[in-house]
Amino acid sequence: MLACMTTPDEDVFSRINGLVEEEHRLRGSGEPDPGRLRQLEQQLDQCWDLLRQRRAKREYHQETDEAQARSVDTVEHYQQ
């Protein structure tokens, strides 16, 4: 499950930064764990999706805290 869930944008950005830092460390390690990299990519997609939801709700004067992290399956298959 995603650690972002429903939190203020600053918390989501902080989570994104942490995930990106871990991804960079793994990629620079010489032998990155492909499973962990995929997991990080999925969590990043979920966080970015949550931010997009929150921004859309804000734009239409809706409660941003109602935005929820969607499943990996949902965010990974938007364009299919």
Q: Which percent bin holds the helix content?
A: 55-70%
Summed over residues and divided by their number, the pLDDT gives a mean of 88
* Cα Rg: 14 Å
Distance from first to last alpha carbon: 23 Å
Number of strands: 0
- H/E series: HHH
Count of discrete domains: 1
Total of helices: 3
Furnish the topology, listing elements before pairings.
Layout: H1 9-27, H2 34-59, H3 72-76
Keywords:
80 residues, mainly alpha, 0% strand
Structural account:
Helix content is 62%, strand content 0%. The model has no long low-confidence stretch (mean pLDDT 88).
Summarize the structure.
With 80 residues, this protein is mainly alpha-helical. The protein is built from 3 helices and no strands. 62% of the residues lie in helices and 0% in strands.
